Amino acid sequence: MTSRTENVTFRFREERNYSRFFSGQSLSLLGDEISAMAIPLIAIQILDAGAFEQGLLFFSKFLPALLFGLHFGAIIDKFAKRSILVAADLARMLLLAVIVILWAVGLLSLPVFLVIAFGFGAFNVLATICGQAYIPKLVPEPKLLDANGKLQKVTTFAEVSGGSVAGAVVQVLTAPIALILDAISFLVSALFVAGVREPGHPPERAEHEKPRIWDGVTFILRNVRLRAITLCTATSNFFSAMMVSLYLLFAMNVLHFTPLMIGILLSVASCTALISGFFTERGTRHLGVRGSLIAGQLVMAAGCVVLPFAGGDTIVKSLLLVASHGIFVIGMIAFMTTQVTYRQQVTPENMQGRVHAGSYMLTYGAFALGALAGGVSGEYLGIRETLVIGALGHILAAAWLLPRSVRVTDGEPPTPAKEEAHDIAS
């Protein structure tokens, strides 16, 4: 997996459809940073959630990846992706509004909150898979790496600006009211995506041919490189979830930071996203796909290793929190941009939805299980001890990419796996 591919710089003015899609996603991602902090805080501050309940909350949010991911992939390959994205945005807007209304009338309870989180997670799964499958239809293949890199950078830029905004909004307006801003961002995102003109025509399919939900998983498992990337990502996500589900509890109850302070520190740390593109582009060019993925995973692991040791006076623990998140962001952007681009390149258009769905089910299904494991571990072993386990797991995840069978000789074209699709989808 060391092949070096020719990548072309992406320019927004040349790709108007992607520009509209990108604008909608950017606003939605900024709003997501508010709900990413507000939803766990509602559980902690209003519903008195502990470590186990926090794990259960994240489990509920990501469980739909396991239950519905493959079905969503088949739906995405069959219907117009633009309509699906708009519907997912509007559904998430309504679910956030329901949380605010129930809180306002005093009917919000933990069981109800978990059910809404499950529904919100289901539409998140649908939108994420559909977005990944839609990009190759909007952007020529040589520009995919750069286009994905820009979207990944804006994701982290949302953390840079959104983290401090989220902390301030949550502290001043309370967490439920802050969700209104995210609901508005979903509405605006839907309007932008609705303005995208569907390029070309949907891929032709024989009348007898129906998208089978397991085709995507079969496609991944038959390709040694996609299989290794997916297993690495799933392992990394499992241990990430153990840490993420306890992050706010650790920052608030152990390090004694306020939501505003947490938002400011995460925003400062996420500024490393501004230099991440430099490492991603040059890493892929000089190390190849496999080398860039291994490097990205190990950099993420380095950031995770720092987190459990955060402590001491305010300055020391603030610096350690910033260092941990900042290092993690550099590795995450390099890893995510490279693996998503590679998967898009080797997947034929009429299987984009199912392959991304298969990957999402396996990797974020692992995230759901990791969140539950993190909640149980945090409850019985302790929060800091669970963070140590999560950090060590990130190091082990890179092992999936080490076998010689995963390697690809230089110059090998990036799309050999497309030939396998005919046997799977026929």
UniProtKB/TrEMBL annotation:
Key words, A-Z: Cell membrane, Membrane, Transmembrane, Transmembrane helix
Subcellular location: Cell membrane
Entry GO terms, CC: plasma membrane
Membrane topology: Multi-pass membrane protein
Keyword NAD: no
A Pfam family the protein falls into: MFS_1
Superkingdom of source: Bacteria
Predominant place of localization: membrane
Region forming the signal peptide: none
Chain ranges passing through the membrane: 21-44, 56-76, 83-106, 179-196, 228-250, 256-279, 291-309, 315-336, 357-376, 382-402
A GO MF label: transmembrane transporter activity
CDD domains: MFS_MefA_like
UniProt KW Ribonucleoprotein keyword: no
Identification of the protein by name: Major facilitator superfamily MFS_1
